[in-house]
Design a protein that fits this description.
The complex is a heterodimer.
Chain A (H helix, E strand, L loop, with lengths): L3 H15 L20 H21 L6 H4 L3 E2 L2 H31 L8 H20 L4 H4 L1 H12 L16 H15 L7 H22 L2 H6 L1 H10 L4 E3 L5 E3 L4 H4 L7 H17 L3 H7 L8 H30 L3 H8 L4 H27 L24 H30 L2 H27 L3
Antiparallel strand pairs in A: 1-3, 2-3
Helix pairs in contact in A: 1-19, 2-18, 2-19, 4-5, 4-9, 5-11, 5-17, 8-11, 8-13, 11-13, 13-15, 13-17, 15-16, 15-19, 17-18, 17-19, 18-19
Chain B lengths: L6 H18 L43 E8 L2 E2 L4 E6 L3 E8 L3 E5 L4 E5 L5 E6 L4 E7 L4 E9 L1
Parallel strand pairs in B: 1-4, 3-9
Antiparallel strand pairs in B: 1-2, 4-7, 5-6, 5-8, 8-9
The chains are: A mainly alpha, B mainly beta.
Amino acid sequence: MTSWPIRLLTVGAGLAVVSTPTTAWAHGIGERGDLPLPLGMVSTGAGVVLVASFAALTVLWPRPRLEGAVGGWALPDAVSRAVGWIEWPVRAAGVVAFAAVVAAAFLGPPTTSGNLAPVAVYVGLWVGVLLASAVIGDVWHTLSPFETAAAIADTATGAGQRRAETLPRAGVWPAAALLLGFGWLELVHPSPGDPLVVGAAIVGYGAVIAIGAVWAGRRWVRSAEAFGAFFRLVAAMAPVHRDHDGRLRLRPPLTGLATLPLGPGTTAVILVALGLTTFDGVSRQPWWQTLVGDRTGWASVPYATLGLLVTVAVVAAVYLWAMRQAARISQRPTSELATAFAHSLVPIAVAYAVAHYFSLLVFQGQQLLALASDPIDRGWNLLGTADWTINYTAVSPTTIAWVQIAAIVLGHLAGVVLAHDRAVALFPPKTATRSHTPLLLAMVVYTIAGLLLLLAGG
Amino acid sequence: MRRGVEWSTSVPIALMALVVAGCGGGDADPASTPTGSPAETASPTTDPDDGPAPPTPTESTGEEHADVEADVTVEDGQVVDGVERISIEVGETVALRVTSDVADTVHVHGYDLHASVAADEPAVVRFTADIPGVFDVELEQRGLLLAELEIAG
């Protein structure tokens, strides 16, 4: 193994610590940024991560255990039935919410902080549904207006309850591309919070999905709907899932990832998601501001676009380097291993999202509830929350800091466990440890980088 | 090597991580929660939404000394001497003076304070920093970042 990851880390850490904050990336959404994490906390977190990772190599089990645990326990029939009853009301609610958001985008107040649409997309969907997927299960499958439309179309054309299990040959590569597009909108576009920009993006995105679905069938929704593709992966972490007979089952958290159906593009979706949240952190760093200079507005877009692509590329390169090393040691194709281990990055991607967006959810989430009462600014009070103002003291900075550190550390540990389990499943005992040590190192790189990014505040 | 069942993956590792992290991170914790909801102690100036408002500088003689005073100057579409991150402790009073060669509105995010500024009329925003966090101050119409307020304590 080369030491260039270590060198890279040292340089990055040096830059992060030495440069003084100049400007912050003015994000379109969110009125408040997190305070920088105290160095003591970050060091402790890093220490835990390093110790645990390398201890895991000797301590963890020699035979794969997670796949056998996925079956879990069936929930009582009554529970499954009850959930079945609320499926269509929840689908209807999802469609109504979608309509309200689109209406708000075009008919509501033109300001970022007064309009439901930007908050609903960047906070409600990208953070709220993401976390709900990790904790509860695949909620987006029911909430998504695209899935609902596809389900209705299936029923109307008599295709019945056939679940679109097979994907086109492109797998979820279209979803990975659209997810990157969403990241570009959120992080690069000069005014991502402008309700009209959000509205146009929703309409454009919806058109891509709808036209493709008309042309290629419901499989297109599974293949191209970016949030669905990513949230499906995240939902594999959750304890509740539906088995092939449609019954609800309870399983230990994370074990679902061990039997995640992997196909073309799955790795890309995970790496893009990880790259997006990494770039979110990068764009708030002082050294990034020094690189970009004083450019604002559209002048900054070429640089920010490049930054986003480079960040995703670096994240991918770290993983593929690890897979290349594993391939050399285990004499297997790199691409096969890259697909086989991609699931172990999902907890890390979710952890990054929690670390960067938890406070956004807590504070701007309140705003979401307030704005939902009056989407098109007619003086309504549908939910009784129209008078709410954001309570910025609902959660203390200390709590936020702990959540951030805990998320990153736990996400890392989960990734280590998943990678280990897959390694002992795939490789003969002699080479199992050596083969996945590069991946372990890659995860350490991701986690330490994630912690360093939080040193400048999130 | 030890064997274990699957639940032993998530739970003990999580506990271990939290215990070790808890023992070590005691220094330099951010402030504890300030009590109460954000107080409306800002002195917002003219309403910026009604077009060119009559200039009303908010300075008055006999004002109190603020705990933190900061000056930002905007010239030619850029902030002179770069954008600063101003450190403030929770509870301190802040007086932020913005001088600009163009007319615009100064907006303090989070606290949601607005002040009109014009070529010959500097704006002063006064408030008590009771919400912790990092907040942007920007020239609203141009989207120009003026300063960052890092309020901790």
